[in-house]
Amino acid sequence: MKLIVRIAAVLLSLLLAFAAFLVVRTLTYQSPAADHTEINLAPAPAVDIEQAATHLSEAIRFRTITEQDDGAEDLSQWDAMHEWLARTYTLVHANLRLEKVAGYTLIFTLDGSDKSLEPFVLMAHQDVVPVVDSTESQWKHPPFDGLIADGAVWGRGSVDDKGSMIAILESVEALLKSGFKPKRTLIIVNGHDEEGPHKGATAAAAWFRDKGIKAEFVLDEGLVTITDFPLLKDRVALVGIAEKGYATLQLTASGPGGHSSMPPDDTAVATLAQAILAVTNNPGPMDIKGPGAETLRVIAPYAPFLTRMAIANEWLFKPLLIDQVAATPAGAALLHTTMAPTMLRASPKENVLPNTASAIINYRIIPGETTANVIERAQTGIGDLPVTIKLGKEAQDPSPISSTTSEPWKIVAALASQKNAIPVAPGLVLAATDSYQLTPVATDVYRFQPIELSLSETSMIHGINEHMTLDNLKRMTDFYGSLIATAGSR
Ligand SMILES: [Zn+2]
User: Fold this and answer.
1) Selected catalytic residue, list 173, 193, 194, 294
2) What does DSSP assign to residue 474?
3) Which part of the chain is the Peptidase M20 dimerisation domain (predicted)?
4) Which long-range contacts (CB under 8 A, 24 or more apart) does 257-264 make?
5) Does residue 330 lie within any of the structural domains?
6) How many whole angstroms from 125 Cα to the centroid of ligand 1?
7) Residue 258 alpha carbon to ligand 1 centre in Å
8) How many whole angstroms from 391 Cα to the centroid of ligand 1?
């Protein structure tokens, strides 16, 4: 009995010591974020927000829609918008060199006085996604009228991404009016098919290469400040430092065709069904690493105690942490390569056996993996099933991961923090942006639109009732104005 008591006492004291160790580690945990408080931010020029809202409303009325079928666009809408831009932003057009690439993508250059400095680049695309016909009646205000009501500008593109395009131009116009002359060259790239094949951004990257220009940094759309960030239920400014890769695999199974009244044991459709399950049952591993992990590590000090303890003691709680983050599809997407079967094709008629049946599986590849890993994993899943795998032509590996210690990062973070009121965390962008094309010609690429949205509000992007509040419009002109003045004066 005594021995048991002694063993229990020893175990208990070990347990208490271990618990104390975890608590101390949790309480002394430091965010790995670089200190951005040393950055001296130049003030933003005054921008008339009412007028900026009117300009955004006018921009929305141009139907610069990238259609699903490449080539179905009404290109006269871009021409009309370019004429309107020239009339509206006269100082920009008088002081910046404007070149067009791929027909409709705009590249504006404001020369700096010191040509030895690498330029910095702001991006915002001109095109928008269509409005699904069946949803048009659900809009509070028509999607292409640009109505200003209830303290917001309503319409397709008000956020994604004409909001940024207009805010950047308003800021530059105001800076020029105040006599601003940069030391470092500023380049603005307005792509015209970001919601499509990214030909404009691809041509812009070639323009940089041909001129031998390497950008110090690029800032494009991507992430925003989320007002109800899940683990904190509070604001977090998420700045994208990388974006996931993209691939589609076509699985094709073959079988004897013929009349469906005399089917063989193995049909193309049944084989394909087995193959789809074999592939989707062999998912990419989840891990706490890369930009998704960086987000957690940076927000940990602001998180409730148990979450903070799990992040501060990742070596112990990793499986729990993965379970917690992966509880939602959006969280899971940050931890691994996702795959989604999206399209199926087989017989055109109900009583005809198809010779082939095929499925499309869409992948979003986590940084650290490649298209080759995705194909390999699918092949392993399929084993010796008689199915072929073909990679779709729009495949691209994940982007490189940008620095979170460089001076441009600190400037962007200092601004996004709104005078240190908001934690700024690096993040992973799940969709593809135009800035991907510029990664080979830039040292760092950041993806952040300086607006505040709740998680539920983000569904208006590509959805219904897209609108830009005047508060968010002001946040943007403050951000871009100060960013250009700060980054351009060094
Ligand atoms: Zn966009």
Assistant:
1) 194
2) H
3) 241-380
4) 257/352, 257/353, 257/354, 257/355, 258/352, 258/353, 259/351, 259/352, 259/353, 260/350, 260/351, 260/352, 260/353, 261/351, 263/353
5) no
6) 7
7) 47
8) 26
196 domain-assigned: yes
Residues with CB under 5 A from ligand 1 (ion): 160-161, 221
Question: At residue 100, does pLDDT exceed 80?
Answer: yes
Q: Return the biggest CA–CA distance within the chain.
A: 93
pLDDT band at 204 (very low <50, low <70, confident <90, very high): very high
Residue 179 located in a structural domain:
yes
- Identify the domain containing residue 93 by its residue range: 49-225+419-487
Long-range contacts of 320-325 (CB under 8 A, 24+ apart): 321/288, 321/296, 322/286, 322/287, 322/288, 325/288, 325/292, 325/296
Measure 192 CA to ligand 1 centroid, in angstroms: 11
Q: For residue 1, what pLDDT is reported?
A: 65
pLDDT range class, residue 475, cuts 50, 70, 90: very high
Q: Which residues contact 408 (CB under 8 A, 6 or more apart)?
A: 120, 216, 217, 444, 446, 487
pLDDT digit string, tens, across residues 125-156: 999 999 988 899 999 999 999 999 999 999 99
| Angle between helix 470-487 and 407-416 (nearest 10) | 150
Residue 102 falls inside a structural domain: yes
118 CA to middle of ligand 1, Å? Answer: 26
Helical pair 290-299 and 314-325, crossing angle rounded to 10 deg: 100
Whether the link from the prior residue into 161 is cis, omega within 30° of 0, is yes
Q: Calculate how far, in angstroms, residue 220's C-alpha sits from the geometric centre of ligand 1.
A: 9
* Active-site residue identified among 73, 127, 216, 444: 127
Report which of 275, 247, 237, 280 is spatially closest to residue 366, judged by C-alpha positions.
Answer: 247
- Domains of the chain: total: 1
The pLDDT of residue 37 is above 80 = yes
Q: Ligand 1 centre from 224 Cα, in Å? A: 12
Q: What is the pLDDT of residues 375-385, one digit of tens each?
A: 999 999 999 99
Q: Is residue 69 annotated as part of the catalytic site, yes or no?
A: no
CA of 431 to the centre of ligand 1 (A): 9
Which CATH number does the domain housing residue 185 bear? 3.40.630.10
Taking CB atoms within 8 Å and a gap of at least 24, the contacts of 356-359 are: 356/252, 356/253, 356/254, 356/255, 356/268, 357/252, 357/253, 357/255, 357/267, 357/268, 357/269, 357/271, 357/272, 358/250, 358/251, 358/252, 358/253, 358/272, 359/250, 359/251, 359/272, 359/275, 359/276
Give yes or no: 369 in active site: no
- Secondary structure of residue 344 in the 3-state scheme: strand
DSSP reduced 3-state for 424 = strand
Interval 449-458 mean pLDDT: 96
CA of 428 to the centre of ligand 1 (A): 15
